[in-house]
Amino acid sequence: MVAAGLLGKLLVRKAGGEMGELRGRIVEVEAYFGALDPAAHAFRGRTERNAVLFGPPGHAYVYFIYGMHHCLNVSCEPDGQAGCVLIRALEPVAGWQWMEKLRGLAPGVASRKLLTSGPGRLSQAFAITRARDNGADLADPASSLQICEDGFRAARVLTTPRIGIREARDRPARYVLAGNPYVSLRGPA
Fold this sequence. Notes:
It is a single chain. The chain has helices spanning about 1-5, 95-105, 115, 120-125, 130-135; strands at about 10-15, 20-30, 60-65, 70-75, 85-95, 145-150, 155-160, 170-175. By secondary structure, the protein is of the alpha+beta class. The chain contains five helices and eight strands; from the N terminus they run H-E-E-E-E-E-H-H-H-H-E-E-E.
């Protein structure tokens, strides 16, 4: 399954300049199953807003929620079919000082967990926006936002119901690196 397979991979923002590169290990994700899933953005069909969800796989689908947060998803179905994985939390690996600045936090004041535990936080910490990143090819080495492999292997993956949604919330489609302190605050981990 794509969702569990993303755990342990790195999300990389190639910012350039003084900021350089931000890296975070993916520690929590949720799967959404297109037309078969009432909680999915593609449940009611293809629109201009959700077109990225319909393929090709490996592209960023970024949406804005509650009028204040961007959320990053990865398209994961063949061209023409909808499905995605929401990246819910990262473990900061490199560039955490810049993540603090991007989140508007005073240096060293907040726990590193607060930098990227939750989809809105990680998007802010990685400067992810719909205008900048929606549709980005996350496997393209030239992309400023990428998902990369570094050989890390998860010891144990925990599967739980999804959190933070109204529809189909009991579906076991949330995956976390068991025991990782950087998963979001709600739900078992």
